[in-house]
Amino acid sequence: MIDTRVKIAQVEFKNPVIAASGTFGFGREYGEYFSLSKLGGISTKGLTLNKRGGNEGIRIYETTGGILNSIGLQNPGIDDFIQEELPFLEKQDTVLLANVGGSTIDEYIKSVEKLNETNVDGIELNISCPNVKKGGMAFGIKSEIAYKVVLEVRQVCKKPLIVKLSPNAEDIVHMAQCCERAGADGLSLVNTFSGMAIDIYSRKPVFNNILAGLSGPCIKPIALRMVYEVSKAVNIPVIGIGGIMDYKDAIEFIMAGAYAVQIGSGNFINPHICLDIIDGIERFMEDEGIKFIEEIRGVI
Asked: What is the pLDDT of residues 39-75, one digit of tens each?
């Protein structure tokens, strides 16, 4: 018998496969294809204190080996999420991570305080959001700013706190260490890389905001390297994200030190990808005589 359970910040996941924020909505659409209870967990669409309509213009653009997105954190806001979406998710028998963003530290704190009173299993703090009080630079670029936001959120957060790191950080290893020191219970990495595309016929950027977030298979080798480096440098669990398209990719991240993985862009290509990866991990473990995930975690 194999055991695919993993524990992150005292939360037990039935398997190490989590649907990534921003690619799975609140699960309703994918629930039409399979039982969400088969997933290790779901990280919700990014939530902000107040409702956001998102960006104007083109939002998704395919590029070689990946996709660029400029969604703009469209979401119903924390209150509507709690009232309209959370009751559905609570019935799915899987771990729920509420992904939280904000433009100020105060917005993060107020959102987390509201989520403290719910049944979500943990908070995934998205520090890739623009800090409006610092000229729009993301919280997750400079380590000292990330430390401050995590420290202040930690003081009010009653749930396990997982911080989602941006690969655009000046030094992602130092950033991870600062988040651990500030009280993070875990880390998820990486978020999207900063990229852009140009329409050569209109001679204009494809996206109204010019820059967009790059994800998909093209970022996997870099994301894998970052997960490896961070896992070696911290003493808290790491969740690996970035271009995971099959069970072999997932196992690579686990061997690099990840406790679990999140599947993002692959959901757009194959709505059953999470299940395929779960099945593949189980087959690999059986074929290789591996009983527990811990046997292969961080072996590199």
From this structure: 999 999 999 999 999 999 999 999 999 999 999 999 9
Range of the domain at 227: 6-53+74-192+219-295
Query: pLDDT per residue over 219-275, tens digit each?
Result: 999 999 999 999 999 999 999 999 999 999 999 999 999 999 999 999 999 999 999
Quote the number of domains for the chain: 1
pTM metric for this prediction = 0.97
Residue 59 counted as domain residue: no
> What residues are annotated to the active site?
129
**Region class of 187: left (phi > 0), else alpha (psi between -120 and 50), else beta:** beta
Tell me the three-class secondary structure of the chain, residue by residue.
Answer: CCECCEEECCEEECCCEEECCCCCCCCCCHHHCCCHHHCCEEECCCECCCCECCCCCCCEEEECCEEEECCCCCECCHHHHHHHHHHHHHCCCCEEEEEECCCCHHHHHHHHHHHHCCCCCEEEEECCCECHHHCCCECCCCHHHHHHHHHHHHHHCCCCEEEECCCCCCCHHHHHHHHHHHCCCEEEECCCEEEECEECCCCEECCCCCEEEEECHHHHHHHHHHHHHHHHHCCCCEEEECCCCCHHHHHHHHHCCCCEEEECCHHHHCCCHHHHHHHHHHHHHHHHCCCEHHHCCCCC
Only one residue has tokens 């669990």, namely: 237
Return the CATH number at 102.
Answer: 3.20.20.70
DSSP bridge partners of 189: 240
- Report yes or no on 210 lying in a domain: no
